[in-house]
Amino acid sequence: MTAIAAERYTGASIKRAEDPRILTGAGRYVDDIKLPGMLHAAFARSPLAHARVLSVDVSPARALPGVVAVLTGADLEAMTVPGPDALMALMGWAGPTPEFTLLATDKVRFVGDPVAIVVAESRYIAEDGCELVEVEYDDLPPVVSAAFALDPSSPPLFANLGDNIARPHSRSEFGDVWSTFANADRIVDFHIDVHRHQNVPMEGRGCVASYDADRGVMTVYAATQSVHVSRIAVAMRLGIEPDKVRVVAGDIGGSFGLKIGASREELAAAAASRLVGRPVKWVEDRTENLSASGQAREESFDVRAAVSNDGDLLGLDVKMVIDTGSYPGMGTMVPAIMEAMLPGPYRLAALGFESTAAITNKASYVAYRGPWASETFVRERVLDLIAKDLGLDPVEIRLRNVAPRTDPPAVMITGRPLVGVTSKESLERVAQLVDFPAFRRRQAEARAQGRYLGIGVATFIEAAPGPRSPEGPSGPMGTESMRLRLEEDGIVALFTGQMPHGQSHQTTLAQIAADEFGVPFEQVRVVVGDSDVVPFGLTGGSRSATMTGGVALHGARQLKVKVLDFAAHLMEANAQDLLITDGNVWVRGDPASAIAVSEVARRAASGQFGADVDAKLEVEATFDGGEGGWSGGTHCAIVEVDVETGIVKVERYVAAEDCGALINPAVVEGQIRGGIAQGIGAVLLERSAYGEDGSFQSATFMDYLMPTTCDVPRIEIEHLETVPLDADVNFRGVGEGGMIVAPPTVVNAIEDALSPFGVRIYEQHLPPARILELIAAADPGQ
Amino acid sequence: MVDITLRVNGATRTGSPEARKTLADFLRDDLNLTGTHIGCEHGVCGACTVIVDGRAVRSCLMLAVQAAGSEVTTIEGLAPDGGLGTLQQAMWDSHSFQCGFCTPGFVMQAAAFLGDHPDADEQQIREALSGNICRCTGYQSIIDGVLLAAERNREQ
To answer: Are strands A648-658 and A628-641 parallel, antiparallel or unpaired?
Structure first.
C-alpha cells in the first residue's frame, strides 16, 4: 500500500483500508468460512400464515442419505432455555411478552415460520431433507391487518397473551393540546399510511456455529452488528456461561438494522451444532431473507393538525398503529421514539400522541435504517398538505415554522433541546442551490406541453447522538469503550465493539487515531469482530461517528500520554518536551533524537524496568458523547411523472446536510447517497406484499423490486458544518438521515407534479399502477 | 457426479460436481474461490457474475457441468497476483463500495463491459450495470469508478 500524505487524515477522503481485500475477492464473509467436518443447515418453513401444527413427521427426512439430524420445535425446546426475544430482554421491555420459541411448536404464525431444522452434509442435501419434512396443519384464520388484529374477535396468535396487542394503547400529551386545537384557525385531518418494506442487505443472515464439547465452548462465526449482543443471546438461550461463548465476525455484507444479535435460526443452528458435535453452517437464501428475516415500517397514522391562517403549525394530534408482525420485538419499541421525535425541528405548541402495536401473521418487524422514520414522513407530508391549502410555498411554510437557532436553544415540545440544529440554514441553502422560481417557470412550460414536473422538499433531524442530557452524568447514547495498545511493531491497535458492515470504520477510526497519536494512517489497525478481544459495543443508531470517533480520539490522546511518559524515561527527557510525529518520538527542537514508536514499544515489552515505570502501553478509554448535538438537513427532489405510464423519474436530487465535522467526506457522502437510494426505492419500488390470506407475494427479486443504476440519479450533496459544540468531538452520525428524509422528499415532489390533477397523497408507496389510480381518482377542482 | 475440466483464472482445474451444482457453488465450495458471492440464486442481483469465455455470466444460473471446457475468470483472477487492475484501482480511488458483498459482481460485469465498450459514457455504463444490485451506495460512486477506469484505459 502506498503511503498517504496528508496534513491531517481527519476531514480528508482517505481511501478505505477495507477496499484492497474487497476488490480482489479476499473479503471474508460468513459464507466463506469452512471448518473441518462442517455440516449445513436448512429450515423447513411454514407455507401458511396461521395454522395449528398437528404433527411433524421428520422420519423420511432423517432417512435421506447425507442428513445428519432433523430437529423440530419440540426438540429445540427440550435442548434450550425458554425466554423472551433477547433484544427485548436486553432493552428491558416490560410490556406483553409472547412465547418465543426458536422453531414453531404448536403453531405457525407467518409464511416462512421455521418448523424444523435439517442438518446435512451439504446445503443441497439439507434442502432435499426439508422437502421430506411432513407437517400436518390445521388452518386458522389469518390475522393479516393491524385493524383486524385489534378487533377483539381476531384469534390471538399467542395463547399466553390472549389478544393480538404487543404494546397496549397509550396516550401522551405535551403542551396544552385541548386549547391549542380550540384556538386554532383551522383543524385539518388526514389518514397517512406507510407500507411494509425491508432491509434487504445483499448478504442475508447467516452463521457457522461450532461447539467444542471438550472445553464446553461455543464459537459462533456470525454476521452481526454486535458480537456481544449475539454472544449474550446464544448464552441465554443455550444455557451456556457467557464467558464460554465466543462470537467472531468478519466482513459483513450489509445489514441496515437487520442483523442485531442472533436470530431464531442462528440460535437453532448453534443448538444443532452442540447436539451433533460438528460445526453447522446456516446461510439464508434470498427467499428466506425476503420472507422470514424481518420487515419494517407498516404504520398508519390518524393525524389532526391545528393550523393558523398564516401557516403556523400549532399542534399535532396523532394516533398511530404499528404492525409488528408475528414475533414482536423492535416494533413494540418504535412508537416511543416516534413520539419523542415527531415535533422535529419545528415550534409546535402542543402534541398529542397515541400508539398501539398489533401482532399479525406476517414476518416480524425489525429495525430498518431510521426505524422511527415515519414520524418525519407524517410531519413533512402534513406540512405540504397544509401549504397547498393555504397557497404557501413548501420552503416558506417550513421556514415559517422551524425553530430559529437561539441561546439557549429552543426545546422540542416533547422535551429535548434543539442543540445545534441547523434546519433553517439547510432550508435556505437548498433554496439557493435549487432555483425555485426558475423551476416554477420550467414546470409551467413543461405542463403546457403535457409533461408533469414536480419539486419536493423535506427536513429532518437525527439524534446522532442527540443533545446532552442535562440531568444525567453521561451523554445521550451512554458511553462507548475502546482499548488501545501500542504494539511492538509500532502499530497502534484500536479494539472496538463496533461491528462495521459497510460503514468503513477500519478507515475512519484509523484516521482519527493516526492524527491524534501521530502515526501514519497505515500504522493504525482497527480490530473488530471477536467477542474475546473487543469491548462491548453495537453498530447501530448512527452512533459510531460521535461515540466511537470520540473514544478513538480521546483514547489515542491517553495512549500518547502513556507512551510519552515511558519514552521520557527511556530517552532521559521530560515528557512535556517530547512529540510524536510520523511514527517517531523526538525531543522538541532535536530531530536527531527521534526513535520509532515501534522501538519504544519493544523496549517497553522487554520488561527491564522497575515497578516505578509504567511500561504497559495500553489504555482502556471511554467516551460519553461530549456535548452531543443533532444531525440534520433538508433534501430536495425534482421528479417527472409520466401520466400515461405512471412512471416517476427522479431528475435531480439535492441534499444539504449537517453532520458536524466530517471524518471522511467520501464515506459520509456514501452514507447519505445510500440512504437516499433506499428511500427512493421505498417510494417507487419496494413493498413486502401479503395477500388477504397472509400469503407472501414478494419472495424474489422479481417481486420485491430493488432500485438499480437506472432508478437512482446523481445526488448533489452540500455539507453545512455550522455549530461546533464540543472542544474535540464534533463528528455526528449520518447513517440514517438519507433513508429518513428521502421518502417524504420524493412523495412531496410527486404530489407537486400531479397538482394540476388535484392529487393529494396520504401514502408512501407509489409504484406506476398506484400513480395512475391516484390520477384517475383525483378531483381536479381541488 | 460428473467429471469436468475447465480453465479458471488461467489454470486448468478438474472437479466432480453433482450435475445439479451451480457454477457459483462449484467455484466457492470445490475450488475455494469464495470471492464470487451469491446474492439471490435467481439471476437478478448479479453478485455472482463471472466471466465465461469472454462474457459476463451469472454463475448462479449456470451449472458447473455447463462450464466444462470453458475459460472462467473470477474476481480472484482479474488482476495478476491478487493485485489491483486498472478498474479495481479506479474503484478504490472512487470509494465505489461499502459492504463489499456486491463488489465482485459489479467488478466482473464492468470489466466485461469496458472490454467491449472502452468509450462508454455514463448512461451506457448505467444501463450495462443495471442488472447488478448494490444496497449500500446509491450507485454513483460505482459509476464514477467505472468512468475513471475507462478514462485511464484510454490514456494508457
So the answer is: antiparallel
User: What CATH number is attached to the domain comprising B151?
Assistant: 1.10.150.120
What's A552's domain CATH number? 3.30.365.10
pLDDT in tens, A412-447: 999 999 999 999 999 999 999 999 999 999 999 999
Pick from A202, A666, A710: CB nearest B130: A710
Write down the residue that cell numbers 451451480 correspond to. B22
What ipTM, to 2 d.p.? Answer: 0.98
Grid coordinates belonging to A348: 409546535
> Does A225 lie in the same domain as A104?
yes
DSSP A271-326: HHHHHHTS-EEEE--HHHHHHHS-BEEEEEEEEEEEE-TT--EEEEEEEEEEE--S
C-alpha cell at A132: 421430506
Measure the CA–CA gap between B114 and B125, rounded to whole angstroms.
Answer: 9
Q: Same structural domain for residues A130 and A49?
A: yes
Report the pLDDT averaged over residues A560-570: 97
Residue A618 in any domain: the answer is yes
Residue of chain A minimizing CA distance to B100:
A22
Residues of A in contact with B149 (CB under 8 A): none
Residue A34 has what pLDDT?
Answer: 98
Q: What are phi and psi for residue A696, nearest 5 degrees?
A: -100, 125
Q: Is A129 helix (H, G, I), strand (E, B) or coil?
A: helix
Question: What is the residue range of A214's domain?
Answer: 33-140+205-252+259-292
Positions of E strands within A328-373: 350-358
Domain boundary among B30, B47, B77: B77
Strands of the sheet with A618-623, listed across from one edge: A524-527, A492-496, A480-486, A618-623
Domain shared by A618 and A657, yes or no: no
Q: Is the pTM of this model over 0.95?
A: yes
CA distances from A572 to A533, A565, A567, A576, A593 (A): 34, 10, 8, 12, 11
H-helix segments, A342-405: 374-390, 394-401
Total Cβ atoms within 10 A of residue A543: 24
Count of domains forming chain B: 2
| Chain A contact present for B61, CB below 8 A | no
Chain A CB within 8 Å of residue B101 CB: yes
Domain shared by A419 and A551, yes or no: no
| Same domain as B93, residue B57 | no
Q: Check whether residue A45 and residue A100 sit in a common domain.
A: yes
For the stretch A697-735, pLDDT in tens is 999 999 999 999 999 999 999 999 888 899 999 999 999
